[in-house]
Recover the amino acids of this structure.
RNA sequence: GGGGAGAUUCCAGAGCGGCCAAAUGGGCCAGACUGUAAAUCUGGUGGUUCUCACCUUCGGCGGUUCGAAUCCGCCUCUCCCCA
């Protein structure tokens, strides 16, 4: 199904730099052709409508007309994670291929709250909260996209100008029956959960965004299909060619649930290489294949071979690929090595922070010390961990939370649980 | 407008006058084991200078009682059925 067309080459300095710096994932530095269906739709679950997409891509390639590719970000939670990366990587491929990426920051829609995948009424955000998240969002998107070539809009640009009359007109473009077809609404109805009337407006707003920016393609997670399709319908009603909808798999979080910052099971795009690597290593063996295919550029034949081999080796490779994409090869490798030293070889990490504190003459009980150093959130928590043998002082397990620690002559090494290390003096 | 059900600790969900800081499962934390921060098994999981005791918590505010998450009143929010 790979598109057969001659390569259209052109040189663009900033693009080249970006490609060089972060080559490993999408297209390994090779810029995809504008109509390379294979690369642009890799991993896609739904492609609506694929013949139309092919046609438009070919047209774009021959006329040199960029397609406008829309991606909406909901600034209601302030962090992007690797789950978003699945889609961002496709956008990046499109961008490298020469298409125009249009990011919509859904500041107006965020005040409604996307009902997708929710079994709960979402709290509506205030303007201030949205503003704050918006800034960090763009910084994070810049980890994957060349923002200098990316168009960014807030949808408040047009929604703020609408009067109630306009809202009614928009609302009139959909029917309740149509809205209720949506699986999340259906499930919530069945489960007897709350559905706010304003939530029906969400898909319409997102769809209206497509009309306003005249998108050719919109990308989203599989849970976005309904919203994307509404965009198509609205565009048709407004006399525009309906956008192509591409959906990509949602990636599960570290614990198998949907990846979300609020579940604490995500890997954020701005996390350190060490953090990323370690979190990947905590994945269950059975999801490695999906992660390889969705988040790395490792060829299928190699993935198959890795999965057939030792899971530990495969997972380490996965972690290294992911950490390398965001932080460079060297950092990725370093993270992998540091992990091996700490967890496989059980050596101490090389970068143990050291703190200095005040010591009363008669010392400090261990549990209190741990809390004061911030290793434990409360002294009860500290006590439990100590009693369970989770705390080592200079390498020795200390099971007595009341053990009094005196001012140490040399910095005292404290190991709290598996991951927290600290030296105090 | 009428009738019914419900709001519990991070989440789901028991409890229905004292034995409740509150079952169980998930998550999380620790330990054992290991190939890893996988899997599995074990323990822990409100706070307090802590095995006792005390303090805060079961939508909100009051009340009944020696004693309430549990009973009563009002309030807020949600769901269902009927109109």
């Amino acid at each position: 199904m790979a598109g057969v067309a001659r390569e259209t080459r052109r040189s663009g300095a900033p693009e080249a730099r970006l490609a060089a710096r972060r080559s490993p994932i999408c297209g390994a530095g090779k810029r995809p052709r504008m109509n390379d269906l294979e690369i642009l739709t890799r991993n896609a679950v739904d492609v609506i409508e694929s013949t139309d997409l092919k046609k438009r891509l070919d047209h774009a390639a021959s006329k040199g007309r960029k397609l406008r590719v829309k991606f909406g970000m909901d600034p209601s939670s302030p962090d992007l994670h690797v789950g978003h990366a699945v889609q961002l990587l496709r956008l990046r491929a499109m961008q490298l291929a020469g298409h125009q990426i249009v990011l919509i920051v859904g500041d107006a829609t965020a005040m409604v709250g996307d009902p997708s995948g929710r079994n709960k009424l979402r709290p509506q955000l205030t303007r201030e909260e949205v503003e704050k998240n918006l800034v960090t969002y763009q910084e994070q998107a810049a980890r994957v996209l060349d923002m200098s070539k990316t168009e960014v809009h807030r949808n408040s640009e047009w929604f703020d100008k609408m009067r109630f009359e306009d809202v009614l007109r928009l609302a009139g473009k959909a029917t309740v029956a149509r809205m209720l077809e949506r699986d999340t609404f259906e499930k919530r109805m069945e489960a007897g959960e709350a559905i706010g009337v304003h939530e029906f407006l969400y898909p319409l707003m997102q769809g209206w965004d497509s009309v306003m920016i005249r998108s050719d393609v919109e990308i989203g997670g599989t849970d976005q299909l309904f919203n994307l399709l509404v965009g198509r319908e609205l565009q048709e009603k407004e006399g525009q060619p309906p956008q192509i909808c591409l959906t990509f798999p949602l990636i599960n979080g570290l614990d198998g649930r949907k990846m979300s910052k609020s579940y604490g099971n995500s890997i954020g795009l701005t996390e350190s290489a060490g953090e990323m690597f370690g979190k990947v290593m905590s994945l269950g063996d059975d999801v490695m294949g999906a992660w390889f295919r969705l988040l790395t550029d490792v060829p299928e034949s190699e993935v198959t071979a890795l999965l057939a081999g030792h899971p530990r080796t495969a997972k380490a490779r996965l972690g290294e690929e992911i950490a390398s994409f965001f932080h460079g090869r060297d950092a990725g490798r370093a993270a992998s090595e540091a992990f091996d030293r700490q967890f496989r070889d059980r050596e101490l990490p090389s970068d143990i922070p050291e703190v200095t504190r005040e010591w009363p003459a008669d010392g400090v009980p261990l549990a209190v010390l741990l809390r004061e150093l911030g290793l434990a959130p409360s002294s009860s928590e500290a006590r439990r961990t100590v009693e369970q043998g989770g705390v080592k002082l200079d390498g020795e397990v200390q099971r007595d939370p009341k053990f009094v620690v005196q001012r140490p002559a040399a910095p005292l090494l404290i190991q709290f649980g598996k991951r927290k290390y600290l030296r105090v003096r």
Summary: Confidence is low (pLDDT under 50) at residues 1-28, 117-121 of chain A. Residues 273-344 of chain A form a domain with the Tyrosyl-Transfer RNA Synthetase fold (CATH 1.10.240.10). Residues 311-327 of chain A form the longest helix (17 residues). The two ends of chain A are 64 Å apart (CA to CA).
